Amino acid sequence: MMQQENERPIVGILAQEVSDIISKKYPYSKSYIAASYVKAVEGSGARVIPIFINKNEAYYRDIIRSINGLVLPGGNVWFYEFDDKTPKENGYLRASEILYEEIKKRNKENKENFPILGICLGLEVMLFIEADKKECRDTCRPNHSIMSLDLCLGYDESRLFKNMNETEKNIVDILQKPMHYFSHQFYISHEVMKNKFNNDWKIISTTKLENQNTLIIAIAESKNFPFIGLQFHPEKIYEWSTKQKRNHSQEAVTACRYFFDWLIKESKKNKNKFDNSDLENALLISNYHKTFTSGRLNFDELYLFDENNSTQILIKQTSLIHCVI
């Protein structure tokens, strides 16, 4: 008998510290979520709540027992100080670790199906945690390029691809075309992935750094849990800055949507819910204002949170409106 799916999934998206560039442009902001992630999740059929950084463990556990999936987004957070490589206690890393370990536990002990989609930094932080917070990444020149993916032998048996329907199977051909936006200065090499993570993670796709011969991980998935990590940025189909190369063709949209569609399909297998609809509605990201940042940053829109996790909108660059939840 087929289990009835959850038709009202909610996905959490983790906030992160603002970069120096964002901080200079928007001094009140302490953390943010790029609106492109929200658009991607909502476009695939789920609702979104923001998950804030610098909260206690009880906050994260309460969130996890009430939502159905998690996005660990890309961004610009350092895991360690450059002088001695000791782990830096920052909000994104700490929250990611609590969420990641709690979700693993719920998948294993509670037999929940609780998916995680980690994008760029999100892939890196999952493997960083798996490596007991020992650095497993290599560095490269800042890379902002459109690249193709090379699918590995056995990709069709992966969690990500094995349940494709007939209309989705053409995506396999599309994925191997040069249309995936990579923006990073760290990467996980194929060699490191095979040597350090082969017992628990499977390589689904690789690519080569632009103008180099270095083979890096493009897609990886957990062998034990519904966790997928991407080094590239499928959410960028919702960003329109002309300063960076992005493919907005229909094929690119179809391919990029697939990863969020996968996340939502998996989230619908999860029955978690909030205690009541009032609490659920109060926590949705729809309660928060977006700031239009195109022309000032490489993002079109950001949810910018101050130290109280409230949002503000700039009105004609002068006055401020507060939205406090």
Automatic annotation (TrEMBL):
Catalytic residue list: C120 (nucleophile), H233, H233 (proton donor)
Localization annotation: Secreted, Extracellular space
Gene Ontology BP, a term: tetrahydrofolylpolyglutamate metabolic process
Domain of life: Eukaryota
Protein keywords: Hydrolase, Secreted, Signal
Cellular component GO terms, alphabetical: extracellular region; vacuole
EC code(s) of this entry: 3.4.19.9
Pfam families given in the database record: Peptidase_C26
Catalytic activity: (6S)-5,6,7,8-tetrahydrofolyl-(gamma-L-Glu)(n) + (n-1) H2O = (6S)-5,6,7,8-tetrahydrofolate + (n-1) L-glutamate
Enzyme class label: hydrolase
GO molecular function annotation: gamma-glutamyl-peptidase activity
Family: Belongs to the peptidase C26 family.
Name the record gives this protein: folate gamma-glutamyl hydrolase
Organism (species): Nezara viridula
